[in-house]
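Team,

Forwarding the record for the chain on the shared tracking sheet. I've put the sequence and predicted structure together so nobody has to dig through attachments.
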Amino acid sequence: MKKFANCFLLFIVSAALLALGTFLSLPESTRANNQDLQVIEVTAKKYEYSTSPVHVKVGTKVQLKITAIDHDHGFKIGSAPDGASSSDKAGLIFTSDQECWQLKKGETTTVEFLPQTPGTYSFKCCHTCGLGHKGMKGQMLSSRRIAQPRIQRPPAELQGAA
């Protein structure tokens, strides 16, 4: 029985060391995906997004939590930075293949992605929402370092407007 216990303990220690070695051999951006999460709360209301520009950090998983306050809106953002050619690799890796996220009035929609390339990414409303629809735009700035809090919230006057 003691021999079995020693073999079992050796197996557990070996497995733990193997897992640690595998984790440490991963690229830093992949490790950050598992460790860091940046949550940004945004409201969509009357032809504007409450938070723009949105600041995100390269290598940190991002959750944009977008709530439409007045009526239905949409959210569309490209995977490549502004000015990049269509042949460039994606700078944002999304967990969903959606091109346009539908934002239903009073509901929060979560858009998840991993920024991999620094740059400016423009976003816009992709659901015709009225006369000012074409002006409903914003920007996201992706950089290696940001001085923003882990959770970004819209101004207090927009939070209670629901």
